[in-house]
Amino acid sequence: MQHRSRLWAALTIAGTISLASCADPGAVAPVPAPSGASASEVATADDAPPDSAELFVYPSDGPGPDETSGSEVGSDDGTMAAQSVAAAAAPAPRIRVGVIQVATRVTLGSAAGYTVRDKGTNLVLFSGTDGGAVTVSLLQVATSHFRLQVMCGSTSAVATRKAAAEALGHATLTEFVAGSNCTRLFLGEFAPPPANTFAARTTYRNTLIQQGLAGTDSFWRVVTLPGGVVYRVERGAEAKTSVNPVVLQSSDGIVTIGGVDGATTIPTRRYRGVAEARQSQAALAGINELPLEEYLYGVVPRELGPVAYPELEAQKAQAVAARTYGLEGIRTNKRGSDGYHLRATTDDQVYGGYADEHPVSSAAVDATAGVVATFEGRLISALFSSTSGGHTSDNEEAFAAAPAAYLRGVPDAERGEALAHVPTLEVFRAHANPASLRAAREGDFESDWARYHRWTFEWTMAEMSAVISAYARQPVGRVLAVNVLERGPSGRVLRIEYVTEAGTFTDTRDRIRSSLRYINASGTPANLLSTLFFVEPLRDPATKEPTGYRVYGGGFGHGVGLSQTGAVGMAQKGHTFEQILRHYYRGIAVAAEY
């Protein structure tokens, strides 16, 4: 290793994100080098003279695992969190939405004037008057410091002195040297050249000697720890760096965010508010921050299409449910470990941004501004799904959770018939024209959910074998039987078993939809629409052996809480949005929160 007095910084490109509009001056500290860390790999010059050797320490600890989530609105494993309305949010709360959760490169821009800033210092990095874009790359930086090597000894001896040093408030770092079969102990942390810390380091070393923590043979090394992050901001051929997340604000209040994750292009979309690029877990996230009410302009039309379902009272009910869910996400900081409140997907609520806004939906948001649903003074978990199939579900039918008093199953009022009692196979068989899932195409469900009030599908034996093999993660051979073991009060399947030549496999509640998958018109396996179904074998007339299976089902979604097409049906019958909400969320209050 070459000896030199200047700071050596190792930059490793870890990912890229580009941004388009946000100027939140809140400080975000750079990721520090770990203190008290134990290194796992080292490159050093053991025989280098004091004050000249550089030691590169690579700690073994890394970012935590990515957070997992369900696949549908409000499906966060059934936890019915409730937040006290008394803990009031500030008027007109702002929400941070992860519009891109994971990316290697994100493109954000503005069609108007814009300013790009370092979020921590508010320093202007770039600006423009007539549109443009920047790309923010995430770099990993090796941070270097002078540290005093006080010993290289046995594990127990080092542990004893390390504990004594930490008890006196000293920064510590250890590193095992395989060639010498000993562990180095470093104390202190001072900036390396070109900073002039000689006097301070001399005083510090003398203090350690007086405390019995260092000997007169102790000496200083420059130790380099990778792990800090730097954001590289590029506009064309220009490039600047920031140790803080980068925000971009547009003069017209509209930004664009898109990008790339590996070889996959992430479409560019327009959003109100501001945009931010920041490290999220082990990657980069593109974040849109804006007022909660403006966020709802982009949520409501994606959750209840105003063209297919223009009934204003139903749209208002959807707006209140979405606002309640969003405000709960803000107060609980639901996705805080990712750097934002909610995702823009069915993991939380679908948020399409500015281009998806519609006058009908926006009018519903404005007409209910600040209104939320509460139960016993606390925000409810405002779960909703598209089509119940005639009867909604108790929350514990879908999720492994304690019963929530306001999430009880009720007869629906959607365009199909309501179910006053648990349905039977004969009821489903008697339906005049159930939709065939075999003919279903991408986008069908968004355009007209009511078509899937009743549906059916048939698997060949080969298809069923492939579906259950994928679930079991092993070849299962023929599927000999599919048995429903338990149903909930609404008739939804709570437990199911698949009896195969390789053994019996079981699944429960709403997860059944991802184990018993159907094959759509593209030949792609897709999650079953709901757990409100009956399944029966198809048999060879001569041998009576099963040759496949047929399912009769109803509804689309987990069925808990508000039924969106049911809300439309109630609105068509003259019910107000308050009446709709109180029908699906039992015993709630509906009132303005801000």
TrEMBL record:
<dbReference type="Pfam" id="PF08486">
    <property type="entry name" value="SpoIID"/>
</dbReference>
<dbReference type="InterPro" id="IPR013486">
    <property type="entry name" value="SpoIID/LytB"/>
</dbReference>
<protein>
    <submittedName>
        <fullName>SpoIID</fullName>
    </submittedName>
</protein>
<dbReference type="InterPro" id="IPR013693">
    <property type="entry name" value="SpoIID/LytB_N"/>
</dbReference>
<feature type="signal peptide">
    <location>
        <begin position="1"/>
        <end position="23"/>
    </location>
</feature>
<feature type="region of interest" description="Disordered">
    <location>
        <begin position="32"/>
        <end position="77"/>
    </location>
</feature>
<feature type="compositionally biased region" description="Low complexity">
    <location>
        <begin position="32"/>
        <end position="43"/>
    </location>
</feature>
<keyword id="KW-0732">Signal</keyword>
<feature type="domain" description="Sporulation stage II protein D amidase enhancer LytB N-terminal">
    <location>
        <begin position="283"/>
        <end position="375"/>
    </location>
</feature>
<dbReference type="GO" id="GO:0030435">
    <property type="term" value="P:sporulation resulting in formation of a cellular spore"/>
</dbReference>
